[in-house]
Each structure stands twice: as structure tokens, then as C-alpha cells.
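Lab notebook: predicted structure, single chain.

Context: the supervisor wants predicted structures on file for every construct in the current expression panel, including those that have not yet been purified. This is the next one on the list. No modifications to the sequence; it matches the entry in the shared construct table.
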Amino acid sequence: MVRGAGRGGRGMPGRGGMGRPPFNRPRVLMLRPPFDLILAEPAFPRCKPAPDDSALTQALLKRHAELCPTPAEQSAVLSLVTKLQTVLDNLVVAPGDFAACQLEEVRQVGSYKKGTMMAGKNVADIVVIMKTLPTKEAVEGLSNKVNEELNKLMRAEGVGLVSCGSHERGFTVTSTGPASAAVRVLVTTLHQNLRKLEPEVHLDYKVISSHLAAIRHSRWFEENAHHSSIKVLIRLLRDMCARHTGLEPLTPWMIDLLAHHCIMNNPARQALPINVAFRRALSLVAGGLFLPGCAGLPDPCEAAHARAHTALDLAAQDAAAATAQTLLRVVARGGHRYVLGLQAFEGGKDISTEITVWDGVVVSPLAPAYQETPEPMDTDDKDDDGVQDGVAA
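Prediction complete. Output recorded below exactly as produced.
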């Protein structure tokens, strides 16, 4: 008898031998992308010419023109941002007797910086990075100092005054006048200070981290999403998400990534027409782009291959997919003017939540697929012999 063949040897699958099946092999999570006709077009050659989509294109461009801010709104925001930037830069370079906090850097972020500001929303965002820890008293002191210096500058130029109001993210500077504007000053700190934060004393950790992420988002957008078609699609998607309840949870960053993906991610690496990109965006969300188990959209500003849609809970992911499916069917039947908001539906109803009829075809909203069920409670059931959970009482 060969020694070792009985227990774990090479000859027989005993304990730990080579013949033992790999029971402990780690399970790999396979994330699958939704079906995308643009990427799969070489495998599905078109049998007939593409239909005329000029009506949708004209509607998209008309709606975008309505969503763009007016020159007066842009001028009001630009004037306030320029003055506020001057005041904050002076506090960075020469703080003087200001000792409430020390500023490291001032960065513009948000839709104003990206060039995707909407009409009627004259709000810009500026992130202030503090060298010191962002205590609530420091934020209040910075707000008062900015209010004082900015009003001095406004009086010297003979224009209206401004007011500052603090909130959990920093403070907001609001100007008065024919075209009022506002700038949200978002406070954060250096990355090495994050571990020193105390919830009772400083601003919330998640808030401060989100402001640092906003700087990364603006930098990525400036480098990769400068094409004008991307900005057009972002405005259209943001407006559509604001009018349909199922799409409201989508964050601005998710919309930015979706618009960039639909415009630029194609075999030719050329910007797609706006009508094709709009249909593609609805098709991808309807096909499960933001559902669990889907590859989704990788976040280029986060490590470890993070997915952007993980910021949504399961109910919001389900609602977004169901709403996109309903809107996609409406667009397919020629109801794009109602989806875009160019024409109001009867009684101002949300077509994504009401049963509608389009050219004889009934479009009914889908029922939620995700049902939140409460977890079963642990009960200690005793049998007749007084045995509780397998242990003698």
C-alpha cells in the first residue's frame, strides 16, 4: 500500500486531497450591460431605411431653446459669481484680521461651471476648501465676512445689496434686482482632515465628502464632456426628470454620465445626433441600466469600479426603469411633445402614471416590480417538552 493514499494523498480524494471538489471557490458577481442597439448595430443590419425623425429633432431643439437661461439671467449670475470669487480669493491670499478660518482654495462647480444651467434657476455653486476644520462657527464667521466685504464692493459699484443665509452645506449669497441671482457657497476641507471630523462640532462628513466629489465631477466634465450636444441632452433629461415622478431620484451626476454615454460611446467615437441620443437614453434606462445586477455606468471619479446608480435605493431603481419604459412607448407612438413638456396633457396629469391612448394603442404604466417586505421576526418557539431552539430550558 502506498503511504498517504488513504488520507489526502494524490491517489484518492480523501481529506484535502487533489481530487476534492472546490467547494470554497469564491463566487464572482457578473454585471451585465443592457441591450444597446447602437453598440450592437453591426450584428443587426437595417433592412429598410431609417424612418424620418425630423419631427422629434425639431421638438428637442425647440424644448432646449426654452430651457436655456435668458441673457439677463446669465448676466446676473455671472456678475454675482465674479464679485464673490474676488472676495473669496482675497481671503485666500490676504485674510488680514479674519481669523474665523483659513481658506486653501476656491473652485466653481455645478451646472454653472459645466454650462448646463436651466432657465429660471439662477443658482451657481462654489466650493470653498478650508485648511482648518469646518466648524459651524467658522462657517458662520465666513458667511458674515463675505456678506460684509461683498456689500462694500456692491455699494462701490452702485448696484443692489446681497444677503447671506447659512445652511447645513455652507451658506447662500442672494442678490436683489431686476434679475436676481444666488450663489451657494459649499464648504469642505482638505482630504487629510476628514478623519478628524466630529459630528457634534463640524459639518457632516457625507456633506463635506460630496463637496470634494463635486470638484472631481466638474474637472472630469470639463475634460471629457465639453461637446455641445452633451449639454443639450443634459438639459432635456434634467427637465424630463423634474416633471416625471419616477425619474426624480436620478442625481445630476447620473444624468451627466448618461448624457455623455449616449452621445459619445459608439463604435464610430463621434457625437450622435440629438434625436438618436435621446431615444438611446430612454431605451437604456428602460432596459435596466440602473437596475441591480446591471453593469450600469462606471463612475470615473470614484475608485474600485463604483457604479453611479448605487446611490439609488431599490425602489427608486425600479421606478426609474418602469417610468422610462412607459415614456419610451409614448415616444414610439408619436407622443414626444408630451414627454418633452412642449404640450401639457389633459388636466396636467403625469403621462408616466396615467393610462393613455396613442393612435389607438393603450399605454398603461407598469406596476412596481420591487415590493419591500419586512424581515421576519426571530421568535423563540418552545416545544411541548420545554426545549427552546434545540437547547434544554
